[in-house]
Amino acid sequence: MECEGDKTYDEPGSCPVCNMDLVPVEKEIALASDEISETSIFNLTSTWTDQNGEDLQLEELKGDVLVMVMIYTSCKAACPRLVADMRNIEERLPKNAKDNLKLVFVSIDPKTDTPERLKAFAEENVMDKAPWLFLRSSEDNTREFAAVMAVNYKKISPLDFSHSNIISVFNKRGEMMFQQEGLGVNSDATVKHIEEAIASR
């Protein structure tokens, strides 16, 4: 029997029509667009410095799809391949997609990769304009970020690191959607996930 249809009340009591007791109704609350989920990298409160010497927190990147990879600029082996893979991904995306996209390189060698060095590296690779972004932070913050990205790295000589070769895609809320692992691998799935993330609200 319907007394007052779907009407609800904020206070406990009984129905004014049939006197039946009112019972609480649980509703699933959707995450507001400006809220951050538990799995978002925007929960990291570390401060980073970009290639222009500007400080930022990752949460400031909210609203953009992020394609992120960890490298170091003095690397002569894997990192140039990762840079090429990122460039390949960027070239495969339509131009209008890049308005809500950031392609981010995060240094695993902050001691060497100063903002000045990152700026020079960006210019050398013709990546000194949007959507490219280069970041560095303290060693502790870098380790914390690497753990979130599932990237392992280890210093093996004064100038060299061994490290995972992983490109990660994050949606506009900072939640990881996909990871591409390896060098020179087929990027079809990566591009597909980026396009889906850009198209979503």
Automatic annotation (TrEMBL):
<feature type="domain" description="Heavy metal binding">
    <location>
        <begin position="4"/>
        <end position="25"/>
    </location>
</feature>
<keyword id="KW-1015">Disulfide bond</keyword>
<keyword id="KW-0479">Metal-binding</keyword>
<dbReference type="Pfam" id="PF02630">
    <property type="entry name" value="SCO1-SenC"/>
</dbReference>
<comment type="similarity">
    <text>Belongs to the SCO1/2 family.</text>
</comment>
<protein>
    <submittedName>
        <fullName>SCO family protein</fullName>
    </submittedName>
</protein>
<keyword id="KW-0186">Copper</keyword>
<dbReference type="Pfam" id="PF19335">
    <property type="entry name" value="HMBD"/>
</dbReference>
<dbReference type="InterPro" id="IPR036249">
    <property type="entry name" value="Thioredoxin-like_sf"/>
</dbReference>
<feature type="disulfide bond" description="Redox-active">
    <location>
        <begin position="75"/>
        <end position="79"/>
    </location>
</feature>
<dbReference type="InterPro" id="IPR045800">
    <property type="entry name" value="HMBD"/>
</dbReference>
<feature type="binding site">
    <location>
        <position position="75"/>
    </location>
    <ligand>
        <name>Cu cation</name>
    </ligand>
</feature>
<dbReference type="InterPro" id="IPR003782">
    <property type="entry name" value="SCO1/SenC"/>
</dbReference>
<feature type="binding site">
    <location>
        <position position="79"/>
    </location>
    <ligand>
        <name>Cu cation</name>
    </ligand>
</feature>
<dbReference type="GO" id="GO:0046872">
    <property type="term" value="F:metal ion binding"/>
</dbReference>
